[in-house]
TrEMBL record:
GO terms for biological process: nuclear-transcribed mRNA catabolic process, nonsense-mediated decay. It comes from Anopheles braziliensis. This is Nonsense-mediated mRNA decay factor SMG8. Keywords: Membrane, Nonsense-mediated mRNA decay, Transmembrane, Transmembrane helix. The chain crosses the membrane at residues 106-126. Belongs to the SMG8 family. InterPro entries: SMG8-like. It holds the Pfam family Smg8_Smg9. PANTHER family: AMPLIFIED IN BREAST CANCER 2-RELATED (PTHR13091), NONSENSE-MEDIATED MRNA DECAY FACTOR SMG8 (PTHR13091:SF0). Involved in nonsense-mediated decay (NMD) of mRNAs containing premature stop codons.
Length: 949
């Protein structure tokens, strides 16, 4: 009642700032507390105001708890983290912004309701971050507070004594700082000199920033001119030793008669027991000892405050004014505490409580504008980061738009975005970084998607389409812009080819176009591979599911025999033949041959009834029966044809010879077993459905592709090739120097029925009036050596061609060719992909594209059955591709044949991309041309064969 009476006038002194203790009480250094703050309730909170009354000086102290107190800040951080457990922690800048904004509200409120304000610092220097707060609050007070506060105070009926400035006075600011603890205590003179230097620095800084001016009405606060306003204090030991402080207070309590008078004699014994030792209540332990010398040397902040209070209670002049014209009375008001407290409660609601609400729609427009814009004006750091982030965002957008092509891929888009993001990161900081990154991402994506997105549909070689994003029904409408160099079917000329998007483009259409430019391709003899021939216009691609991941479909489900799938058992049967010696097995000189004694003159290898009538009926039946047994029993006529390989020794030279022995009796037996061909057992291809991909071992039976992926052409006579000069450039262009030679393959053969050959040969030559002694010469030379030239050609995407001399080495000169060098490529799997020796660092992988075969002048035919196996998933699965021809292909005698392999291989699930890099030592893990491709077949006894030999 005494304090808040409406007749009592007091000076209001506010204490605000920083603290490190849990109690957050900054009045410890004033020496006016009647109880140790550690013994009080330490439940601090932001914006709490505690009142302390001092009767000696007519002073009311207001102690403000704010977010600059460490434990208040810690409590706020815990509340923010517990409120958003599921969300990530707030950015430090956001947290610091909240701390500054809340402290600024308390500081503005204290400047409105106090005569004197003491800012407490825990360090030895002035915190320069106060400058931005002071400038922001000065703007807020002039722009908002002076507009809404007078009207609201008038409507509330409080604060009429405050005048148009709506504050008690231009509050005087005092800075209380702490000296660090050192071993040597500084002298009083040193401390005073430090205070004077800091005062000069603060005055100069505040005036330079226009925070204080000569006109106190336009200043946020004032500082006493020519008087002390900076005070350094040293932390007292007793303030830190809580137990000692409690003992001193307890001693005073026991010694004070006023305190012990109320204690009855009954409780006196109990009080004596509470004494920690016997003499605790004696005067020597009193804290209120009168040491005049100590008091004269002591320095107290309370003395400085009391001096300002005395000046406030007396009529004074504005000390900010230095000129005579401005020498006027200062507008300072000393209201009664009762009226002041009414004003305090109302303003506390305006400045502290209402800003904590989530909605401001119920307030006056001016006041609402103040609440909404307060944070933006105070938090200049967020504004700085926002402006810098916007500047960086603009530069990053310009960076992304630099030299953009008409269409570009996702990888190029990502690269440009990363460059722009790197530039943004050099500017954007703090909480604005994430929103700026999101804006940049959205901007870059919108630019790319709206008209600049590249199609990126991959070609069969894995190159993306360079055209704009488009919907195409036909894959051939795409274009990657990549150009390769490839040779035609016969290898005579080379041309540029676009990166293919369909198997038809890769393996058929390009070579058809090249054939129009080549002078050889269209006029050369070529083998027709089986293709789909529709019987109606309503044909379609077959739909099937290959459930066997190993690409080997069961024979029961497809209706095919094992010989239709693979000839591996065929070679295994030959290898396990009892007629082979151990040395022959180890040298693998026979295992990959497929010998057969039957053949047809025409390229067509299907059994037709009309052809049977034109031929010798008995020979046709024998041939068909033997071939039928070969396909169903996988023995290549070993049982029915009795083909043996014996070792003979010549007196002059010891060589391995291949003997062809045909037993007529056994042929007749075969015919008797199956006198009439059963054409209904042959699987006829479909004429309504075609195979959508390429033929391979696991393809459904009866389905054929619409176009051939292979090519087999005859360049002409074997005389085209000369082993001394190799392949000439005008015949085969693009070969690397020294790698244009074919490899010789010597095969020793002896024909057991050479006498019948000689007799027939004699009759024909007599009829042609030839030499009579030729038959004897042929009879004596029934054993002869076949010289076959083989060339496994590779071609890279730049058109470089070369011959391989073994599965892991390239032929580089003619001197590397030895006798029978061709056996290295005949009896081994040759890799499909191999590094090209050219200097191209990108796409230097060459592919096996052609096989050159020069057949000998002899009464035998070279037969081929090419099979390519492409491996996938580290050789865990594979596809074995074939030409689709049921029988081995017979090549004419003394001719130059070229087999062109597919440019791209396609399985059931799509194209099989070639490896980007190939190691020469492990090239076979990607795919091979399987060994066993070459074979020899005895020629038929006719006039053409004899004359050709």
């Amino acid at each position: 009642e005494t304090v808040f009476s409406k007749r009592k006038q007091m000076v209001i002194v506010g204490v605000l700032g920083k603290s490190n203790e849990a109690h957050c009480n900054k009045l410890v250094e004033f020496g006016m507390l009647n109880i140790q703050p550690n013994l009080e309730d330490i439940a601090v909170s932001d914006g709490r105001v505690k009142f302390y009354f001092r009767t000696e000086g007519d002073t009311l102290f207001l102690h403000f708890d704010s977010t600059f107190d460490n434990f208040v800040m810690l409590k706020l951080a815990e509340e923010m983290m517990s409120a958003n457990v599921s969300h990530p922690s707030a950015h430090f800048i956001n947290f610091n912004s909240t701390i500054r904004t809340r402290y600024a509200r308390v500081l503005l409120f204290a400047l409105q309701v106090c005569h004197v304000l003491i800012l407490v610092e825990t360090s030895v220097t002035f915190d320069l971050s106060y400058l931005s707060l002071f400038k922001s609050l000065k703007i807020i007070r002039e722009k908002y507070v002076l507009k809404f506060l007078p009207e609201m105070l008038k409507n509330a009926g409080v604060g009429s004594f405050m005048g148009k400035e709506c504050r008690l006075a231009s509050p005087r600011l005092i800075f209380l700082l702490s000296l660090p603890e050192t071993l040597q205590k500084p002298s009083k003179e040193d401390i005073q000199a430090l205070e004077v230097k800091l005062e000069d620095f603060i005055t100069k800084t505040l005036r330079n920033e226009f925070i204080i001016t000569n006109n106190s009405a336009m200043s946020l606060f004032s500082i006493p001119k020519g008087k002390q306003f900076v005070f350094y204090t040293q932390t007292k030991e007793q303030c830190k030793n809580t137990i000692k402080d409690m003992m001193m207070m307890l001693s005073v309590c026991f010694d004070d008669p006023s305190q012990t008078a109320i204690i009855s004699k009954r409780n006196e014994a109990l009080m004596n027991k509470l004494k920690p030792y016997e003499f605790i209540g004696f005067p020597d332990f009193k804290v209120k000892l009168d040491h005049s010398e100590k008091r004269s040397n002591s320095r107290s902040i309370l003395d400085l405050v009391q001096m300002l209070v005395i000046e406030t209670l007396e009529p004074i002049f504005d000390e900010e004014c230095t000129g005579v014209k401005h020498r006027t009375k200062c507008g300072m008001t000393l209201p009664t505490i009762g009226h002041w407290y009414e004003m305090f409660q109302f303003m506390y609601q305006l400045f502290i409580e209402n800003p904590a609400k989530s909605c401001y729609n119920d307030f006056e427009p001016e006041y609402k504008s103040y609440l909404e814009n307060f944070h933006a004006l105070v938090d200049i750091e967020e504004q700085l980061f926002r402006e810098v982030g916007e500047q960086g965002l603009e530069l990053a957008m310009l960076k992304y738009n630099e030299m953009l092509p008409m269409h570009y891929s996702s990888s190029y888009h990502e690269s440009k975005y990363q460059d722009a993001l790197h530039l943004l990161g050099q500017y954007a900081r703090g909480p604005q970084l994430k929103p700026c990154v999101e804006k940049l991402k959205g901007y870059c994506d919108s630019i790319w998607i709206s008209g600049k997105q590249q199609c990126e549909y991959p070609s069969l070689r894995g190159n993306p389409c360079l055209m704009g994003k488009h919907k195409s029904l036909d894959a051939s409408d795409h274009s990657s812009g990549v150009i390769y160099v490839s040779s035609c079917n016969c290898g005579r000329i080379q041309g540029h080819r676009e990166d293919p998007y369909t198997i038809r483009q890769a393996n058929y259409e390009f070579y058809q176009i090249m054939a129009k430019s080549c002078s050889n391709c269209n006029r050369l003899e070529h083998v027709q591979f089986p293709v789909f021939e529709p019987s109606t216009s309503d044909f379609r691609a077959a739909e099937f599911i290959n459930k066997n991941l190993s690409n080997l479909m069961t024979f029961e489900s497809t209706g095919r025999t094992e010989s239709d799938v693979n000839n591996i058992n065929l070679y295994r049967s030959a290898r396990d033949s009892p007629f082979l010696s151990s040395s022959e097995r180890s040298q693998n000189c026979f295992t990959n041959f497929s010998f057969n004694t039957v053949s047809y003159d025409g390229p067509d290898r299907t059994c037709d009834g009309a052809q049977a009538k034109d031929r010798n009926e008995e020979l046709y039946k024998k041939d068909w029966a033997l071939n039928h047994k070969t396909n169903t029993e996988e023995m290549v006529g070993i049982e029915n044809c009795n083909i043996d390989k014996n070792r003979t020794t010549d007196s002059k030279n010891q060589k391995d010879e291949m003997m062809f022995k045909v037993s007529v009796a056994e042929k007749m037996t075969a015919i008797a077993l199956d006198p009439e061909p059963r054409f209904d057992s042959v699987k006829h291809p479909s004429t309504t459905e075609y195979l959508p991909g390429m033929l391979h071992a696991a393809s459904p039976a009866g389905l054929l592709p619409r176009f051939p992926s292979w090519s087999l052409v005859c360049l002409g006579s074997s005389s085209i090739y000369t082993h001394n000069t190799g392949l000439p450039e005008h015949v085969q262009s693009g070969f690397l120097s020294g790698s244009n030679y074919l490899l010789p393959w010597d095969v020793n053969v002896r024909l057991e029925h050479a006498q019948s050959w000689a007799a027939s040969y004699e009759k024909i030559r007599l009829r042609k009036k030839t030499n009579l002694h030729s038959s004897k010469s042929f009879e004596r030379n029934n054993s002869f050596t076949l010289k076959i030239f083989i060339g496994v050609e590779y071609e890279c995407l730049r058109g470089h061609r070369f011959i391989m001399k073994s599965p892991d080495s390239i032929l580089r000169s003619a001197t590397e060719i030895a006798r029978d060098s061709g056996s290295n490529v005949v009896f081994n799997d040759m890799p499909i992909y191999f590094p090209c020796p050219c200097r191209n660092a990108i796409n230097n992988t060459a592919q096996l594209m052609r096989v050159h075969i020069i057949t000998p002048k002899a009464p035998v035919n070279v037969i081929i059955d090419p099979k390519v196996k492409i491996f996938q998933n580290n050789m865990q699965s594979s596809f074995t591709f074939n030409t689709g021809v049921a029988q081995s292909i017979k090549l004419t005698q003394s001719s130059y044949w070229i087999l062109r392999l597919p440019f791209v291989y396609e399985g059931d699930t799509g194209p099989l991309e070639p490896p980007p890099e190939v190691n020469p030592n492990s090239a076979v893990i990607h795919g091979v041309l399987m060994a066993g491709m070459y074979g020899i077949r005895e020629n038929e006894l006719n006039e053409e064969s004899l004359l050709g030999s």
